[in-house]
Design goal:
Blueprint lengths: L7 E6 L5 H13 L4 E6 L8 H8 L15 H5 L3 E4 L13 E4 L10 H22 L7
Parallel strand pairs: 1-2, 1-3, 3-4
Helix pairs in contact: 1-4, 2-4
Length: about 140
Amino acid sequence: MSAAPIPTVLFVCVHNAGRSQMAAAFLTHLGRGRVQVRSAGSAPADAVNPAVVEALQEVGIDISAETPKVLTADAVRESDVVITMGCGDACPYFPGKRYLDWQLDDPAGQGVAAVRPIRDRIEQLVRELLGELGVGTAAS
């Protein structure tokens, strides 16, 4: 019997500099190779938000080398689950994909103190997603 295919999850926000980067980092960290993770933005920023980098470093996740990536139709087409975080109509739609929209505050222009609760909510949502995907978390 062959192993179940690894699900692919794409996180999308406008700038791919905050929320989607945090979500991708948590899913990569907690999924430990059991999920393929992508993130992108409909209008990518030049760099990841420094407060987001700092907030993730506080919980032992280093995304300092990450860069915002542009959203492509291929990235959506190749993903099983597409999770949007405020990208609106800029996100392409393909039938047969699972779409979720996570309502989260935008960390743009915020300091690390404002980013922490967003980070913690994203971690909670990612843990729930792992359960829904049937892959559990790194701690389980």
